[in-house]
Every structure is written in structure tokens, then in C-alpha cells.
Design a protein that fits this description.
14-stranded mixed sheet; mainly beta; 5 helices; Phage tail protein beta-alpha-beta fold
Amino acid sequence: MAKSLTNANALEDIKVAFNYKGQGLDLSAMVTALDIHENMNSDLYGSLELDDDSAIIDNIILTGDEVINITFTYFEMKVDLSFFFNGIKNINLGETDSKKSYQISLRSINDYISASHLVSKSYEGSTVDVIRKIYGEYFVFTPLVINCSSPNTGRYIAPNIPPKAAINSILKRTTDSNKSDIFMSQALFLNGATVMDSLSNIVEAEPVYKISPKTTTAKDANKGPISQAIGTPSNVVVNDNSDIISATKTGVKGLKLNNVALNTSSFATETFRGTSKPAITLLRTTRSNMYDDKFSPLLDTDNVDLSASAFKSSIAFSISAIAYNTPAIPGLRCGDLVQMAVQDYSKTRTNSKAKYSKKYSNHYIVTGIDHHFSEGTYFQNIKLSTGIA
């Protein structure tokens, strides 16, 4: 990447290489911005912005199987990711014919593999076992980490469909022993490994981080900008579909995370009432003959419907939040639980003791992370969701 991108103390050795004709073409000095998107229900994807003063991109003949490798170190955590070159989204012309700016689309290698193969095979075992077998046969470049199990067993027949479609068709119909949904997503800080976990496991886990956004008074604003600690968003917006509130940060809150010492942050224990776990609804659409003692095939008749709307997730996420422009939290991934204490400022408080909102102070599931690298910085927009029973 451009030299300025490695200036941050915690962000080191970030490199972007383009695999062209079996050789690595170093694009690091040309890159001006990098965005990688992480979602609880999908693989990683992103975009790359670069300035090309030497017409390097113009002289590349694309064959359709190019790979872009991205590596960096953050708080001594090494990340190594590979993406499929998914085409050029935008081209901006410069002052000369040779100077151009490009925005390149990045997609997971898993997407490329799934688009290139079809599964026509029979599998037996539990739903998790079947997914493990399909994944292991096709997605060999990214490990699968399984943190849950399913009581459903039987036979699954894949009727000549892409491997991701086969996995998703099972995933949308299966639950763990607690009747809660199971999710699969790629994690940036696990080098693109795919994690499979259930909602019940997620909500029973301990929060890995604590965020305490508070309002900033006019008096504080007149003092100038407040330095941001690791994991402290510049702005948090909470939305429960009936009331939208926002709060800006005043500092805090680094909690231990993956044995990384966050020296630039501080942690103070704060207690508040109203914490509840995200709600799980037990109602969901399933087929009675999915996995029974007679080994009925899952996809055998005209009943098959692979559309996402046919098997809607059963999570009751009634409150969502986005923590904007957060100095990146090392190791954070989708499916982690964070604790957020939102100050109650619906009424003017005359005492100095903080009052926390019973409705919005809660444990939130990380459902999405936008990783943004630019100008020597690494920020995250963290998408959070919770359900109030």
C-alpha cells in the first residue's frame, strides 16, 4: 500500500499483491484505500482503490482467474487473505493518458469456486457432518471452524447445484439442539477461515469487548477533538424502528481480547441494570421429512425452494446499532458478543452519576464489520443487533 498506510503504530507491513501469470505483482505502493466487508451470513468481499501512474493495469490481460493477496499485521496479529479479482468497478481518468485511478471489486475465493462447480452426490450424517463433508471437498483454501452441533441426521441429496447453494439449503433448514439457527461466515482475523456457530452458543458467550458511548456536551466540544481509543466509536446510532438515538464517544473501553494488550485504551468496570440476552424465537419453517429415520432426501421433489425469502432467519433482532469510525478492535469477528452501556439522556441529569438506558444498554451480537484502511489508519464500522424479549 501507499507509504502513509503503514504509519499507524499498530498497523504494520500491509501489502497487496496481484497474482498474474503465476507471479506476484506488488501493488502496495499504488493502493490508496482498502475496504473489506464481513457479514454474519456470508463470505468476505471488498474493494480496492489504487492510483496507476505507469499504466500497469492497462497492460494486464485478464484471464478470469486472477487472485489478489492482502497481508498485514495489527497488534502483532498477522492476517493473510486471498480474494478473487472480480473486475474493475470504476475508472477515473487523470491529467495524462497513463494516470488512472481504479476501484477493483474483491470477492471471496469461495464464491469463485462455488460458481465453477456443481454438486451431484448423496451424503449421510448429521446436518453439520454433511456441511463439513461438502465444504471439505470444494473449499479447500479456507479452513472450516465448527463450534456447534445438530441433532438432525439423515441423508442429503445434492441435485447438481453449486456447493454454496447446497450448504445454504441445509443451513437455512437446520438448528442446534436448542432450536436456534446456525450461521456460517468468514472471519478476517482468522485469515478467512469460515466459522460455523449457533445463535444459542453466541448469546451464552462472554462479551469480548465493552463500548460505552456517551453524549458530548457543547462545553466538551469547545475543548477540541477528543482522541479515540481502540474500540471507541466516533458515533453510535441505535435504532429500534420506533426511536432513533445517537451518542458520541468520550473515550474508553479496552477489555482483554485475544491476549492482546491494548495499551492505548483503558477499561473501567461499569454496572447497569437492564442487560438481557438477545432473544431467540423457536418458530421456524422446516420440512417434516428433512432428516427422518427413513432417510428421506432433502431435495428430491418439486418442493425445493432455494430462495432466501423461503427460509427466513428466525432471529428476533428488534434493536440494531452501528458503531461508526471505530479504531479497529483486533480479533473482532462476526458472531462475537459485545457489551454496550448507553447513557440515558432523555432527561437532564443534575447529578454526576451516570444513568444508563435500561432499554438500550445490552449485550449486542456483532452481525457485520466494515474494515476500512486508508491514509495510515484502520477503522471499523461495527454493526450490532440484539433482541429484547
